[in-house]
Amino acid sequence: xxxxxxxxxxxxxxxxxxxxxxxxxxxxxxxxxxxxxxxxxxxxxxxxxxxxxxxxxxxxxxxxxxxxxxxxxxxxxxxxxxxxxxxxxxxxxxxxxxxxxxxxxxxxxxxxxxxxxx
Length: 118
What we know:
The protein is mainly alpha-helical. It is 78% helix and 0% strand.
């Protein structure tokens, strides 16, 4: 199981770092999953991730208080708003897919904004 967690952790780190450069892919949730996997497989990689200058503080805030930085909340709101507008105007799906997508985004935003700010 240790090797499975290690492989999953590395996969989540790669997805998280890709998400840092692509606005469509989230970063922090993948890194939270990576830290959890590394806690079960590699204390060295867990320590590296938690002490990372860019991502470590957000991961520690989540681990200690289940808190999300206000900046991350606002970026999630902006990213989802832009994505929804692009979907609506750029792709123009029917009303049902648009409503389902909007509802799922609102559920995600409600979860993010329900957490304390770091």
